[in-house]
């Protein structure tokens, strides 16, 4: 590790000011950034920790019935405290990484990093969530823009994420055993105005909607509704863990399991 300055502001305004420094980088739980720095793949001169900002922590319900989660809330807290309001989201959080990761990693950090195999992007996209920053509100459909790419501007901070609660939902994750990331993960959520299916871990473009499955499930919310479908394998990741065709197959299997469990 190399030398760097460390800042731990107590408010969002202080954090935004600190991030205005040259080569400053926001730090959530550090589960991705710190290993990246150790490998010399990132070299910020200033780390601005968001873990001291109490207004960015915790879970509540909005007047509209949305589950509102502060950007600095840990996975472990989401797993424990969201269960009464959004069980599928809590279950997803409870299977991220291991206990050490869950007690340090944050939802805001995960969504800001947008790892193509992370779990929260599937939950946010599958739920039609709204990402709240220090300057604006971004719909999940507009937020994810490819592998490690998001709609966030330089110095913009995720302060809160709002999840509409569905009628039924489930997340199925085929775990890569070494990293605990999703080799393929599928989040299915049924709302009054339609079904949403979000896939993570499979595509080189990151999290995506499986629109054909959504259309089929809108007609019949059963596992049988997707039997005739075949996810395209052309843009799927192919690596030592599985071919593109294998990942496409897993997308269908995990979707079916999620629908069956949600039903």
From TrEMBL:
Q: Known SUPFAM superfamilies for this protein?
A: CO dehydrogenase flavoprotein C-terminal domain-like, FAD-binding/transporter-associated domain-like
Spell out the SMART domains in the cross-references: CO_deh_flav_C (SM01092)
Q: Does the keyword Flavoprotein apply?
A: yes
Q: What is this protein called?
A: FAD binding domain-containing protein
- Ranges of residues in domain FAD-binding PCMH-type: 1-168
Q: Which InterPro entries match?
A: CO_DH_flav_C, CO_DH_flav_C_dom_sf, Diverse_Substr_Oxidored, FAD-bd_PCMH, FAD-bd_PCMH-like_sf, FAD-bd_PCMH_sub1, FAD-bd_PCMH_sub2, Mopterin_DH_FAD-bd
Q: Which domain of life is it from?
A: Bacteria
Protein species of origin: [Roseibacterium] beibuensis
Keywords for this protein: FAD, Flavoprotein, Oxidoreductase
